[in-house]
């Protein structure tokens, strides 16, 4: 048993050297990250390929979805390093720069996903509640690409300090890669960590809830039978609202609740070791939920985009017919 990387109190404020028992990380995280890698990598690659093949008829929602898939793909490419790290009992042999890069990619993917899902939700809200308004139609795809550029700039600026705080250190006679910050920088990390949670999660979550509340209110207040096309748009909007809300509740909410609580306890003086260990375990235990957004995002894409759902089926039918002709 030894100090856990990133979970101990600051050296200058801890009354004792806490010894944490967190073997569950080495049992839980490697298989979870392996599932995310095996499922998320091909799913996001397929999303990118299908959107790229339809680039001449891209909608603004497809532009946001493409950038969302790119963020997920970048993160899944970093997972083999984390799988090896936790399978080796927190042994990080890949160097300090790679440690910083992997931690940056995790938070960039996390908050990039949140912001792009918010953009998709806002676009859907405008399309349903203001279908005839011209003020949100100007610019088309060009405006969507501009918004994506702003989102990437915000995400990079917001998450870049994670690459400053995250670093390698020596514990248990081998090198570890700190997730949040080294123990002695816990109190310095606290203001940044809270800012990251508020700006990168809480504000977008509130905006998303406001969009879906207005959207639900708009759909409920509409009277009379709707045209088939309008009815399909309403159903699509309702499906997207349910799925995006589920992604937020499953992937993002538990992680940010436990992370915020852990940051608060971690930065306080004279917290007992069992209390600190309990909050650290809760935070570490919800990290897989945050990683699963790289799998849930492409599922959201296929669930809400009918034309893209049909294409894999059409391709499979064509291949099957070709094989049957050749066999005959």
UniProtKB/TrEMBL annotation:
Pfam families linked: 7tm_1
Molecular function GO labels: G protein-coupled ADP receptor activity; G protein-coupled UDP receptor activity; G protein-coupled UTP receptor activity
Main location: membrane
Residues covered by the G-protein coupled receptors family 1 profile domain: 43-301
Keyword rRNA-binding annotated: no
One GO cellular component term noted in the UniProt record for this chain: plasma membrane
Annotated compartments: Cell membrane
Any Gene Ontology biological process: cellular response to pyrimidine ribonucleotide
Positions of transmembrane segments: 32-52, 64-84, 143-169, 189-216, 237-257
Cited PANTHER family: P2Y PURINOCEPTOR 6 (PTHR24231:SF16), PURINOCEPTOR-RELATED G-PROTEIN COUPLED RECEPTOR (PTHR24231)
Protein name from the UniProt record: P2Y purinoceptor 6
């Amino acid at each position: 048993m030894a100090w856990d990387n990133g979970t101990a109190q600051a050296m200058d404020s801890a009354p004792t050297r806490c010894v944490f028992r967190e073997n569950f990380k080495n049992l839980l995280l490697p298989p979870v990250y392996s599932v995310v890698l095996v499922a998320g990598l091909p799913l996001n690659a397929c999303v990118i390929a299908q959107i790229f093949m339809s680039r001449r008829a891209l909608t603004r929602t497809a532009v946001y979805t493409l950038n969302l898939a790119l963020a997920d793909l970048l993160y899944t490419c970093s997972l083999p390093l984390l799988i090896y790290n936790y399978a080796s009992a927190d042994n990080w042999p890949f160097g300090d720069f790679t440690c910083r890069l992997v931690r940056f990619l995790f938070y960039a993917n996390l908050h990039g996903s949140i912001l792009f899902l918010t953009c998709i939700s806002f676009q859907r809200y405008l399309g349903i509640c203001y279908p005839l308004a011209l003020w949100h139609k100007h610019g088309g795809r060009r405006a969507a690409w501009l918004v994506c550029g702003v989102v990437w700039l915000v995400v990079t600026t917001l998450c870049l300090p994670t690459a400053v705080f995250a670093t390698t250190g020596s514990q248990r006679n081998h090198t570890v890669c700190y997730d949040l910050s080294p123990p002695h920088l816990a109190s310095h990390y606290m203001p940044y960590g809270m800012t990251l949670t508020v700006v990168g999660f809480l504000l977008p979550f509130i905006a998303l809830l406001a969009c879906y509340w207005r959207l639900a209110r708009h759909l409920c207040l509409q009277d009379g039978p709707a045209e088939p096309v309008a009815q399909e748009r309403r159903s699509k909007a309702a499906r997207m609202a349910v799925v995006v809300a589920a992604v937020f509740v499953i992937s993002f909410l538990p992680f940010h609740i436990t992370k915020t609580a852990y940051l608060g306890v971690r930065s306080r003086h004279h917290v007992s070791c069992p209390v600190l260990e309990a909050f650290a375990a809760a935070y570490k235990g919800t990290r897989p939920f945050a990683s699963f957004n790289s799998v849930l995002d492409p599922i959201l894409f296929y669930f809400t985009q009918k034309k893209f759902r049909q294409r894999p089926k059409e391709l499979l039918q064509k291949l099957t017919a070709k094989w049957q002709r050749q066999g005959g």
